Amino acid sequence: MVSEVYFLDLRKWRNPLKGIDSLLKTTIGDIDAGKSVAVKVHFGERGNYTYIRPAFVRTVVDFLKERGTRPFATETTALYPTGFRSSAEEVIETARFNGFTEEGLGCPIVVADGPSGEDGVEVLLEKVFRGCQIRQISVARGIANADALVVLSHVKGHLLSGFGGAIKHLGMGCTTKRGKREQHAAHGLVIHYEKCTGCGECVKACRFSAMSMEGGRPIRDEDKCVYCNTCMFSCDQDAITLLEDGKERFQIALAHAAAGVMRAMVGKPTVFLNFVLDVTVLCDCAAPAGNIITHNVGILASRDPVAIDKASLDLIDISPIIPGVKASSPDPLGKLNGTDSTIQIKVMEELGFGSTDYRLIEV
């Protein structure tokens, strides 16, 4: 089955806000008046400046309100403890800091997984492939209970998945802390004692008491570990790493989690907009997120998360890479992050939640 992906080429549109309206007209369609619509958006970490602009989100909200629906902007808490988004209170404050307010967006802002990030709805997975250990996923309750979902994704790089788009936003962005931990657990953590100096920095960095020193060596308690990777980033000796195939394992788990979110929304309109703008090496959780690798490409819309992500990567592949960026097509973001970005797309297609066979339609 060929999926339709609508494309707003920013080289041809002088007013992207009007263009977003045109994109939404092609995909919204069947969201009835009076229905609640979760508008999922990443508000950016504090210090990040390449997240989706609030004006773009406001345009989506206004479009939905004009059709009599009840939109609310929503985000979930972060798994890692080192930024400013680990609780609902921090998420709201960071949103304000980055320009996302209820007054500015014209709608309520809801942290979908609750005050501490654990308020979710358990969804059983219908299929499991490629050795994935996830059998059910905790979907943020505020999203699962909505009548419709509009996912606004900034297409950019990601250290673990190569790139982040609609699938990444579903799997990681729409689940609780428990769901996020299960995905990250797939990449594993390995302590290489031959490199370890016993400095204890990893123990100091862990805020979950999952690391301790025994006999001058760090020991990790897997039951307490949330796989936030703070210990790994704190180690100057590179003594803590992912499993050798950890990034592939992570993408497989990510796709399964995304499939779980799609299952939670079965029978409810689900729309995706991908913003291929400010395409940085790292994700919006990074502050800053590194260099931009290509010019602004455009905005895409579809009902198919697989097709829209595949189209986004294909458009990046044919876009000129900025001089100095040490990667080339295909999949420059994957190369920059040491993985194959298409794994998540292929697994999501295998799970039956989209198609890589698409038709790109310019609006």
Explain what the structure shows.
- The structure is a single chain.
- The protein is of the alpha/beta class.
- The chain is built from 13 helices and 16 strands.
- The strands form five sheets. Strands 4-3-2-7-14-15-1-16 form an eight-stranded mixed beta sheet, sandwiched between helices.
- A hairpin with a 2-residue loop joins strand 11 (211-214) and strand 12.
- The mean pLDDT is 96.
Overview features:
Rossmann fold; Alpha-Beta Plaits; 8-stranded mixed beta sheet; two-stranded antiparallel ribbon; alpha/beta
Any chance you could write out the topology, listing elements then pairs?
Elements: E1 3-9, H1 16-27, E2 36-40, H2 54-66, E3 70-75, H3 88-97, H4 102-105, E4 109-111, E5 120-124, E6 136-140, H5 141-144, E7 148-154, E8 156-158, E9 162-164, H6 166-171, H7 177-185, E10 190-191, H8 201-205, E11 211-214, E12 217-220, H9 230-234, E13 240-241, H10 246-264, E14 270-276, E15 298-302, H11 305-317, H12 332-336, H13 343-350, E16 358-362
Parallel strand pairs: 1-16, 2-3, 2-7, 3-4, 7-14
Antiparallel strand pairs: 1-15, 5-6, 8-9, 10-13, 11-12, 14-15
